[in-house]
Design goal:
alpha+beta, single chain, five-stranded antiparallel sheet, 45% helix, 545 residues
Length: 545
């Protein structure tokens, strides 16, 4: 078998950093483990290898055996696709799992049987399903522990798979049966690599114009044309142009789009050279490719005066599909962000409405916790997580009896237990919001004490999540700084004395020291209201999914 170093020389870039030296369990071969590792790192996806002859799974990587598709007629029909029989990549959408798309890659006959590699991706419907939890297809999307590849259009996914197969050429992993018909030109492989790079750069959280700019720049270089433009379907939408052509403007692009229509591409391969009324740098040959209802991709003036051909059309189709998908997913992401933003605002308002004496407490705790995290060297995404946890740390008080919550005198043991229950009630309220799962440890454990005397789980020392230790200091500081029904606020000197006495006993010493280090900032933060911090925190939260 060829070494990994030899494989890297063939491809001009490493397929992977290093294949871990391990043997697949259950009698599965090192060969299957090796190709699975290569594919998992290439696609960033869950991978399975299926023995087509014996009709059984050989290996699962990044996915549990029972999460692979069941061996039944629908799967076997997908394995009989003409593309697979010809040694080409295919894409399969299981009927019972609309949130998934499986990229199928035929591999060489091995140990007397043909095998097919399955790489699991989110389907182009994934973002829409995630925003519609009532849809049965959203069920599979809630399996957080599984690693699925990014959602991308089927033509681009096939191109990525075919490019991966091309880089395996000459290795034991390459399909035994080659694609029938004329071979693709030598320069097709780099263009497939361009598609895979664009897929990796797709981010639903990015403004569509950013990806459109990247895509048109890459396509202009790939096609070697003077200009490439993306024209959105909305007339008031902002188009993107890479390159320049004399007299090119929105009206000219709209006329080209009108010729192409919505369903088929349009090629204008008029003979090059001077034309009446057209300068040497004016618009000449062009190709226009519609992207459904999203808009049109237009390539203009090949630099070598060549004709646009079928390969150009294929490349444009791939890129147009990517632009359309990213634009659609970005819109859904923006709507989801607004939804999460609204939910958090509503929950925060509900806390304040429940107990007027603590109005604004959650927002102040959130900002103080974020500042303490900054002092402790936390990265921006972790600071945003702490902000959300602080904002919602007392959400469980919604489920506490008003009589107990607003009592001005001492609490009885039973009443104190009811107050303590708010942390577990808070987790119950938030646990069905998938995008907020990462803040649950802070919500549950912000009343634990370093010496183990806190609640609800009596954790101590390092067993208490760090975010909860930070929230505990922020929460106590703001509580001591505020008037409550049973006491007036403490003076700054009294607060400092309490914190010093509890340092290393009730509260983490590092966190208390961080508060003293940025004390002036913390005092200023307490005066600010809800605003940009929440916007940024929601961005970071949605960006992790």
């Amino acid at each position: 078998m060829m070494s990994l170093e030899g494989l890297s020389r063939i491809t001009n870039r490493p397929l992977m950093e290093e294949v871990p030296a391990r043997r697949a369990c259950g009698g599965r071969s090192d060969w299957a483990s090796g190709i699975a590792e290569l594919a998992a790192r290439e696609f960033g996806a869950a991978v399975g290898i299926f023995d087509r002859g014996r009709r059984r799974w050989l290996l699962a990587l990044g996915v549990r055996d029972y999460d692979l598709p069941e061996v039944r007629p629908e799967l076997l029909d997908a394995l009989d696709a003409p593309a697979l029989r010809q040694g080409r990549a295919s894409v399969w959408h299981p009927e019972d799992d609309p949130g998934r798309a499986w990229l199928l890659l035929p591999l060489s006959a091995h140990e007397g049987s043909e095998v097919v590699l399955f790489a699991g991706f989110r389907s182009s419907r994934a973002a829409e399903l995630a925003a519609s939890p009532g849809d049965p297809g959203a069920t599979s999307l809630r399996r957080d522990e599984l690693a699925w590849g990014p959602a991308c259009p089927e033509p681009a996914l096939r191109a990525w798979g075919q490019e991966f197969l091309a880089r395996l050429k000459g290795t034991p992993y390459h399909p035994a049966s080659q694609q029938s018909g004329p071979a693709a030109p030598d320069d097709e492989q780099p263009d497939r690599a361009v598609i895979s790079r664009l897929i990796r750069r797709m981010r639903v959280s990015d403004p569509p114009a950013r990806f459109q700019s990247l895509a048109t720049n890459v396509l202009r270089s790939s096609l070697r044309v003077a200009a490439v433009a993306w024209l959105p379907a909305e007339r008031d939408g902002q188009g993107v142009v890479s390159g320049s052509i004399e007299g090119l403007h929105d009206g000219a692009l709209r006329r080209i789009a009108a010729q192409a229509g919505r369903d088929a591409g349009y090629l204008f391969n008029d003979a090059p050279g001077p034309h009446p009324g057209r300068g040497a740098g004016a618009l000449g040959r062009y190709a226009c490719m519609p992207a459904g209802s999203a808009g049109w991709l237009i390539a203009m003036n090949p630099l070598d005066d060549r004709l646009f051909d079928a390969y150009d059309v294929d490349r444009m189709q791939f890129v147009a599909s990517l632009i359309s998908t990213q634009s659609s997913n970005a819109r859904i992401h923006a709507e989801l962000k607004e939804l999460v933003f609204g939910i958090i605002l509503a929950l925060s308002t509900a806390i304040d409405a429940k107990d007027p004496y603590t109005s604004g407490h959650s927002e102040r705790v959130a900002r103080i916790a974020m500042r303490l995290a900054e002092e402790l060297g936390f990265p921006p995404d972790k600071r945003s997580d702490l902000y959300l946890a602080g904002l919602l740390h007392d959400i469980g008080k919604i489920g506490v009896d008003d009589v107990v919550l607003k009592k001005e005198g001492p609490l009885s043991p039973e009443e104190y237990r009811k107050i303590q229950a708010h942390v577990e009630i808070g987790v119950t309220i938030l646990r069905d919001l998938k995008t907020l799962h990462h803040i649950l440890p802070g919500v549950r454990h912000h009343h634990e004490s370093l010496d183990g005397s806190g609640y609800p789980d009596h954790l101590s020392g390092e067993d208490i999540p760090l975010e909860a230790r930070i929230l505990a200091v922020a929460d106590s500081f703001d509580a001591m700084s505020s008037n409550r029904p049973y006491r007036k606020r403490l003076t700054p000197g009294q607060i400092d004395e309490v914190l010093k006495k509890g340092r290393g006993k009730q509260w983490d010493a590092r966190v208390v020291d961080a508060l003293f280090a940025c004390r002036m900032d913390v005092e200023a933060i307490r005066q600010k209201g809800l605003g940009e911090s929440l916007v940024g925190a929601v961005d970071h939260t949605l960006g992790r999914h």
